[in-house]
Amino acid sequence: MGGPQVSEVQGFVTESLGRRGRVPEHLLQHLIAVQQRFGWVPPVAVESLAAELDVTRTQVRAAIAFYAFLHERPRGDFDILFSDNITDRMLGNRHLLARLAKQLGMGTHETRADGRVTLGLTSCTGMCDQGPALLVNGRAVTGLTAERIDRIAALVGECVPLERWPGDYFRVEDNVRRRGLLLSNADADGAGLRKLVDQGPAAALAEIERSGLRGRGGAGFTTALKWKFCREAPEGDRYVVCNADEGEPGTFKDRVLLTSYADLVLEGMTICAAVVGARRGFIYLRGEYAYLLPHLESVLARRRAEGLLGESILGQAGFDFEIAVHLGAGAYICGEESALIESLEGKRGVTRKRPPFPVVSGYRDRPTVVNNVETFLAAARVVRWGGYWFRGEGTDQSAGSKILSVSGDCARPGIYEYPFGTPVRRVLIDCGAERTQAVQVSGAAGTTLAPAEFDRLIAFEDLSTAGSFMVFDQSRDLLDMVQNFAAFFAHESCGFCTPCRVGGALLRNLVEKVAAGQASEHDLAELRQIGGVMRQTSYCGLGTTAPNHILNTLDKFPDIYRRRLRSADYTPSFDLDGALSEARAIAGRDDDAAHIPETLPTTAGAAV
Amino acid sequence: MSNHFTLDGRQLPFVAGQTIMAAAQAAGVYIPHLCHNPDYAPHGSCRVCLVAVGRRQVSACTTPVTEGMAVDSRCESIQANRRAVLQMLFAEGNHLCPACERSGNCQLQAVAYYTGMLAPHYPPFFPRRPVDASHPDFIIDFGRCILCELCVRASRDHDGKRVFAISGRGLASHLVIDSPSGLLGDSDFAATDRAAHVCPTGAILPKHKGFEHPIGERLYDREPISKVGDLRAHEDEVDGNE
Amino acid sequence: MSDKPRVATVSLCGCFGCHMSLLDIDERILQLVQLVSFDRTPLTDIKTIGDCDLGLIEGGVANAENVEVLREFRGHCKVLVAVGACAVNGGIPTMRNQFSLRECLDESYVNGVGVYHPGIPTDAEIPLLLNQVHPIHEVVKVDYFIPGCPPSADTLWTFLTELLAGQPIAFPYTQIRYD
Predict the structure, then answer these.
(1) A178-391 in CATH: which number?
(2) Burial class of residue A53 (count of CB atoms within 10 Å of its CB; 0-12, 13-18, 19+)
(3) Are residues B61 and B117 in the same domain?
(4) Which of B25, B160, C122, C163 stands the most exposed, by the fewest C-beta atoms within 10 Å?
């Protein structure tokens, strides 16, 4: 019984401080290391880190409370979190969780009394093409089946350490189904970097400009412009950050790019560094992809050995660039670039005020380029093959290709690369989707499409997308999707601004009320009103896009709401009879007068 | 080069780099706000100072003015959104004005009056948040905290103490105190701290001074905050200091 | 039957302070009875409600009987008004929402100072308490809200005269108060 020895924790913290550094920016990385080592962050670790890093213990605790994968209480020896994206639900994750809980003799959201195992749910883990999936002590297990669950129950029961679990449980497939401009020209020969050195950074920037490349994270800011702003910033340090916090439900392309195309991503970052004059870069890797860390570290080490990274890159004196991988710890908001920078600085991932934009004042208040994984990869290819090569595909406003993460109701989920301007229908045909009822483009924050819209185009000027593409066939109840997304946004709001923090929770509660068959027309009007306020007034993109799925489905699929309404035009906001439960228990009563009937009138004119 | 913009149709001057809020305040035009206090860096979290710039709604406290910008602070959609944001704040916390010593001197209440809010509208959350009365001079009622972070900023940026922080996320975000027990009485907090005097609600209150001014004769009882100004301008009156 | 608008009023989980404030309109009450006729209200002591044009609700919803009465009012009133802080947002009684119902009852009937025969009453005649106290708009649709603890007599007068005259309700600044 009892936690780890105080001296053991202190020793580990001291070692971590020695290895990762003693600046406040490293707080989050230390906390993640402690969490991974001990299964929680013991108080002595909080005190040691606060003392060593010149932060208050409250700031340390506040960070722990912010990130879903950090805990101030011990978790089970096996900390098992089922991915709970709607695509996981469609593949039966809830049944599998219940099955595992039953076999382990515990509830679905708790730590077992003996401390052996914790069960729970987590936001989308980026394995939608091979779900249902779970994380055990931060490691992804894919392709869950009843048999696999039974075996996991046995492994946990026998206390078998993860290193001795069957290796294929942890296998993550790339599932690249369609290679386009980038993925079919992906040889990692360092040619882009050589061309940069031969022709100079200005020429590289000119190619990027010529290509028309825009950010692949969804917002579509012109990449050359961003780099140029940073390049032209006053003297001093500047930074290059690769946003690999791929948290948008249903997207997993960055997982594949970092697995099989890491060299090109790193090359793109290095080119960017040369263009903007940065000497340090970061990959902010979402905690769910922590399993990629050893792989990325080895690629970084090899590139250093090959002279493609580090000091005097390709023998060029003064061309120095180093990349460190920083882990996230379960916070969707950190995909927003200013929240990502806060997190990179070791703090709670709360959005920053803009302006100034990161390109003017980012990491450590210095000019910082933050780009998506796919953007860096594309940039590397553009410098290698030229801007015209890139813009030979796509549309006027959307040059090149887009890599989509396709999941849901289709025969062949996986990665598909298309020229921009490709209609949704084409993707559906290619992935083997049939009887499609709806497509959710660009994740939970994106657009819900009805069949009448399947001729719309994947392009910034029509359907701007970070790449998530979730398919729902006619057997699905889309309210399940709405419930899933509404709970997701309420869970992932950073809490900084009022409309997102409170409005998100109000929306979730109203959607639950609809699902429970207790809602009225009034509640549908409320959903619209709150959604509208959030869209117009929220501080950052999370809040402004969070109501999209509700507003879209209210317009395009009104029946998923209407068929569940109670007949009244106004219904109570809580379960009236349920609200007498404590009093009934205390008084030991269950007579008629101890209940509130559902049927009394609640609006004018309803009484005869 | 003229450095002018229009606010509700009035042409006003501005200095390069000034926010809409700062330029409006300099010209004596009131834009309702809660998390903004000119003594501290703009924050932008409460969203009450929304104004319309073209088709976008932005927070006046964080948005720099640009030449020729046309800002609308009075249109009905702005007023309605401000009201909705205030209603969310009232529904989120435990704002029981009749039981609050700050009532009448409360900026949250005053701004709600200003926008014509008659009711919180949304189903209340009734968060369970215990009161911290451990400090000899001050009390904290966490149920009234609107997460504006003014005490966090004042303690960190002015007092040099970092007594306060925000913990958790989403609706579970909450104010925490840096002391071994988590109680205010065990922290470095002092009545003379700036952090003790910047709360726009009744969350951080001096003890023993509650009813020196009777209800009905308080700051915002007779005239709106647009005329009376922020608590900041009336601190001695409100906190009962000489 | 008079063709004057019929008005009903009730206090749910309130202190009758809002009703007292209504009486504070003083001699204007003579004008009011010219304008309306009263149905169920503590002012007339009529115990059951008939069809009404206007229902004024004081107090929040704290027990099963409050729910029943509130729904009767909603069913019989064309226009329903939340009058005062407790009806509007639950008011002072919601301070008990900081505790479980068991804690509240234990404090009152078991552990409280001066309790002689400790024990929580379970008589079936006593309406059961809700787990929490709620504002009335959480139970029924509310057409107007008048804040205040209580709303002043002038506030109530403004509301009644403007509503009865068919005008939009516009309170001067000093008549919107939450305390």
Answers:
(1) 3.40.50.11540
(2) buried
(3) no
(4) B160
